[in-house]
Please model this.
Amino acid sequence: SMLRGSDFVLRDVYKDKENLKELLKITTESQKIWGRALVEAGADIIMVSDPTSSGDVVSPRVWEEFGAPYFAEVVTHLKKTGVKVFSHICGDTNDRLKSISSLGQDCLSVDQKVDLAYARKILGPKRCIMGNIDPTNLLPFGSPEEVSRQSVKGIEQAGKEGAFVLSGGCLILDAPPENMRAMVNVARAYKY
Model:
């Protein structure tokens, strides 16, 4: 989508599948080369992100045909290097959590639209989940107290037994330091 543009890619899903799959093969190879370079430069963790595969953008069928196979290929390739692989798909992924988690990544980052209790139920107690404090409203505009309450709730829903990384649900563009500090302080102070 970054190379071709989301509108064109979404149209190609229906009108030009074969050329889109050729582009996906090229970009998958590019991701693998880039990932290996990151590992060689010393990366311990690589985050693989795929905003276009969001349930807010494409159906589960489109995800399974145009997202999952290529995503899995990148994850499998990177895992062979020994690096930890985290993944993130923006938006509502409740309907594809099992599919996403089957790709082999070490940790699944979920957006604020994903119910953490549901994610924990689907993924089980040992699967690492990362997320999902609201980065568009709560972190930039909420109070530190609100951020703290939501952070505790997130840990209660998905992290009581560990296997949880408290973080923003997606890219945090602008948040007051006191709100970020509130989130970090909850993670440090929580009694597991």
The chain has a mean pLDDT of 95. The chain is about 50% helix and 15% strand.
